[in-house]
Design a protein that fits this description.
Pfam families: SATase_N. This is Serine acetyltransferase N-terminal domain-containing protein. GO terms for molecular function: serine O-acetyltransferase activity. It comes from Acer saccharum (Sugar maple). The protein has about 120 residues and is an all-alpha fold. It has one domain: serine acetyltransferase, domain 1, CATH 1.10.3130.10. The chain contains seven helices and no strands. The longest helix is centred in the N-terminal third of the chain and has 20 residues, at about 5-25. The chain is globular, with a radius of gyration of 14 Å.
Amino acid sequence: METSPDEEEVWAQIKTKAHRDAESEPALASYLYSTILSHPSLERSLAFHLGNKLCSSTLLSTLLYDLFLNTISSDSALLAATVADLHAARARDPACVSFSHCLLNYKGFLACQAHQVSHKL
């Protein structure tokens, strides 16, 4: 799937901030690596993070990851909506210090992403 320049810029900012955070907070390095730094794209990182947040003992994170990634990759509007939601959180919430902060920690953001992906299933 082709990404827009804005999506690429947001992803670059997310990775840069996560890398800085991993260096300054070694206790978080493993979490940041597995959730953001090991992924080549925003859609893969988001699918991984949502899969881990929504998994259970009977619904494995790997199954959810594949399901979410296929859904996000098949519809470019989903990724565009994710980027728009990241921008909205940064613009409207003074406590939101970075796109990566929103992606990792904002339950409302993650709920919106889960809703959008599940609506396409």
